[in-house]
């Protein structure tokens, strides 16, 4: 039996995606919150879910290790891959933004030091403004960088803004809307067209969108 | 960086090359080789997808810059143009050679073995369909069962935006969105561009123009497109019809969102996928404009595949040895269906076969047998005599009686 392999990161987005599928009668009863399994199958043995790190989802899909992936647009922007991007799941909504101390200038200045998990996106953004940048790639606690004077501003995803506020920072400029996307391997789309279209349909029904 | 092909892998590698070579031969292709070194200028003057910094440069003793063969199509076409005089109307060549591209990933080989065919012929749905059939046939021979060929039309996107006033940057972004079938963002993006609304509608539909030919062509009927785009669609449709005559219906998918991945492609483009492999294993298309860059019209279609990818994707399936002999099938236009049937059947039996319409067949092809299909009768001709046959069984018997029964008919 050939499975449809779906890659996603563990967490809220994965749980909501599974809820959507349940509405279309696709159940993962094997899955529990405490489970540490990295591979689970749906009850009808048609879908194989693999849990990987979010930034790796596009890699798995591009290489064909997974047929389908669910991943935030932010990841796709930082690391564009040769895959199809077929659906906006509308979950995990947030914004990619420039943040820093209030009144930090980010226009008409020659140079900025920027800390970010998304150095490529950030660099391109400031390049377009004609500002030269020094990029500091960080993997977490980005907000710390301006606090200790390591960078002028940060580029990060902002959901509620609570972390920024508690650290005395504000959004200086919004860059893009981010939400979870459904991506598909190009070869799989050709060889497993029906299975994938069915999966997308199930997802859409969960979302309450009719195609 | 290099990774080694060890023992078993290497054997598989050679076996696949053998299989492909044999299949190409049954379609009348002759093997050629091109030089390992090419002029750097050759590549800087031609529109290609090969990046300048991907090429491996070498400086010879006169100080001239050469590159290690980055591809075969371009130098072959240039050479043929230089020969110029008395080129036959049709030429079929295949190659199995290493091509060299600098990779920027560790552990990726710089040299990869490419096997491909180049069919220099006038642009026609029949020749394009035959080339697609060969691609599919070759992949099946290697042992893949779930072969899918995605067919698109290179000029289609460019036709659509030809009269629109958008910047190169916007065009590039639009291409990226269409290639990713990004239905989510393409609508909002188009809103911001000054393009005719009817064209916008087509562009927005482009990612969805994917699937079985009948589905795609039906959807296209509801869309308004320019006359030249209309011609492209007709050509594509005719090609698909013939591909279906070859019995490939379940192996083909139309994808009008498939955009020119090589600078010089102009008409039909296609790529082949096989089960459980995440990348295309084969790519090809028509490149009528390439020869014009060298100052001559020499239309052609071709494809290439990377042996290393096929090795990775392939199952170990043994292929037994077979015999082969040469046949040319010449038919009157009305007999095309029967000609294709016979050609298919003979090729299935590993004969090397060429088929063409009678009007294009003034010059006899150099083959052991010729089959003539006219309105009135079917003939098998060889150096000695001409014999009539009624059906395929009788034809096989005739050939067998001439050569003796070969071991493969049992």
Automatic annotation (TrEMBL), chain A:
Its EC number is 2.4.2.17. Keywords: Amino-acid biosynthesis, ATP-binding, Cytoplasm, Glycosyltransferase, Histidine biosynthesis, Nucleotide-binding, Transferase. The keyword Glycosyltransferase applies. PROSITE patterns: ATP_P_PHORIBOSYLTR (PS01316). The keyword Amino-acid biosynthesis applies. Its main location: cytoplasm. Residues 53-204 form the ATP phosphoribosyltransferase catalytic domain. Gene3D superfamilies: Periplasmic binding protein-like II (3.40.190.10). HAMAP family: HisG_Short. Heteromultimer composed of HisG and HisZ subunits. This is ATP phosphoribosyltransferase. The lineage of its organism: Bacteria, Bacillati, Bacillota, Bacilli, Bacillales. The gene is hisG.
From TrEMBL, chain B:
Gene3D superfamilies: Bira Bifunctional Protein, Domain 2. The keyword Cytoplasm applies. InterPro entries: aa-tRNA-synth_II/BPL/LPL, HisRS-like_core, HisRS/HisZ, HisZ. Its main location: cytoplasm. Residues 4-310 form the Class II Histidinyl-tRNA synthetase (HisRS)-like catalytic core domain. The keyword Amino-acid biosynthesis applies. It is found in: Cytoplasm. Keywords: Amino-acid biosynthesis, Cytoplasm, Histidine biosynthesis. Pathway: Amino-acid biosynthesis; L-histidine biosynthesis; L-histidine from 5-phospho-alpha-D-ribose 1-diphosphate: step 1/9. Heteromultimer composed of HisG and HisZ subunits. Belongs to the class-II aminoacyl-tRNA synthetase family. HisZ subfamily. Required for the first step of histidine biosynthesis. May allow the feedback regulation of ATP phosphoribosyltransferase activity by histidine. This function is generally fulfilled by the C-terminal part of HisG, which is missing in some bacteria such as this one. PANTHER family: ATP PHOSPHORIBOSYLTRANSFERASE REGULATORY SUBUNIT, HISTIDYL-TRNA SYNTHETASE. This is ATP phosphoribosyltransferase regulatory subunit. It comes from Sporosarcina ureae. The lineage of its organism: Bacteria, Bacillati, Bacillota, Bacilli, Bacillales. The gene is hisZ.
């Amino acid at each position: 039996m050939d499975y449809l392999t779906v890659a996603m990161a563990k967490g809220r987005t994965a749980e909501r995606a599974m809820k959507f599928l349940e509405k279309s009668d696709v159940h993962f009863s094997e899955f529990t919150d405490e489970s540490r399994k990295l591979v689970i199958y749906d009850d009808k043995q048609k879908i194989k879910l693999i849990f990987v790190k979010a930034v790796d989802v596009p890699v798995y899909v591009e290489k064909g290790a997974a047929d389908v992936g669910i991943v935030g647009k932010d990841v796709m922007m930082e690391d564009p891959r040769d895959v199809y991007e077929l659906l906006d799941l509308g979950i995990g909504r947030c914004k990619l933004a420039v943040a820093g101390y209030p009144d930090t200038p980010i226009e008409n200045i020659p140079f900025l030091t920027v800390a970010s998990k998304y150095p490529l996106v950030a660099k391109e953004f400031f390049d377009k403004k004609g500002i030269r940048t020094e990029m500091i790639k960080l993997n977490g606690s980005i907000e710390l960088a301006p606090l200790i004077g390591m960078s002028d501003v940060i580029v990060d995803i902002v959901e509620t803004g609570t972390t920024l506020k508690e650290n005395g920072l504000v959004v200086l400029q919004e860059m893009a809307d981010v939400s979870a996307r459904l991506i598909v391997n190009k070869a799989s789309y050709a060889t497993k067209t029906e299975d994938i279209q069915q999966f997308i349909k199930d997802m859409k029904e969960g979302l309450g969108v009719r195609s | 960086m290099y990774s080694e092909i060890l023992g078993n892998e290497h054997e598989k590698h050679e076996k696949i090359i053998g299989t492909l070579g044999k299949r190409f031969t049954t379609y009348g292709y002759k093997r050629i080789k091109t030089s390992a070194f090419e002029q750097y200028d050759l590549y800087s003057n031609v529109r290609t997808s090969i990046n300048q910094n991907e090429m491996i440069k070498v400086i010879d003793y006169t100080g001239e810059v050469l590159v290690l063969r980055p591809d075969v199509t371009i130098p072959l076409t240039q050479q043929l143009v230089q020969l110029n005089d008395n080129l036959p109307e049709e030429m079929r060549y295949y190659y199995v050679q290493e091509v060299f591209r600098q990779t920027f990933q560790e552990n990726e080989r710089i040299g990869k073995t490419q096997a491909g065919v180049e069919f220099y012929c006038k642009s026609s749905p029949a020749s394009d369909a035959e080339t697609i059939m060969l691609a599919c046939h070759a992949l099946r021979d290697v042992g893949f069962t779930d072969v899918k060929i995605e067919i698109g039309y290179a000029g289609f996107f460019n036709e659509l935006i030809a009269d629109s006033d958008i910047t190169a940057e916007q065009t590039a972004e639009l291409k990226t969105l269409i290639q990713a079938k990004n239905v989510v963002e393409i609508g909002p993006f188009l809103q911001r561009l000054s393009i005719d609304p009817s064209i916008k509608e087509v562009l927005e539909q482009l990612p969805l123009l994917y699937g079985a030919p009948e589905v795609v062509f039906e959807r296209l009927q509801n869309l308004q497109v320019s006359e030249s785009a209309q011609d492209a669609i007709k050509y594509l449709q005719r090609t698909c019809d013939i591909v279906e005559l070859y019995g490939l219906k379940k192996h083909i998918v139309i994808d009008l969102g498939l955009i020119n991945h090589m600078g010089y492609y102009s008409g039909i483009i296609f790529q082949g996928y096989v089960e459980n492999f995440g990348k295309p294993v084969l790519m090809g298309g028509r490149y009528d404009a390439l020869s014009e860059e060298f100052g001559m019209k020499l239309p052609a279609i071709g494809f290439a595949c990377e042996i290393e990818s096929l090795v990775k994707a392939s199952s170990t399936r043994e292929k037994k040895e077979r015999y082969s002999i040469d046949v040319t099938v010449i038919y009157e236009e009305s007999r095309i269906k029967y000609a294709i049937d016979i050609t298919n059947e003979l090729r299935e039996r590993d004969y090397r076969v060429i088929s063409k319409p009678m009007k294009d067949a003034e010059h006899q092809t150099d083959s052991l047998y010729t089959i003539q299909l006219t309105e009135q009768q079917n003939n098998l001709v060889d150096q000695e005599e001409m014999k009539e046959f009624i059906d395929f069984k009788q034809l096989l018997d005739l050939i067998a009686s001439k050569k003796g029964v070969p071991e493969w008919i049992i």
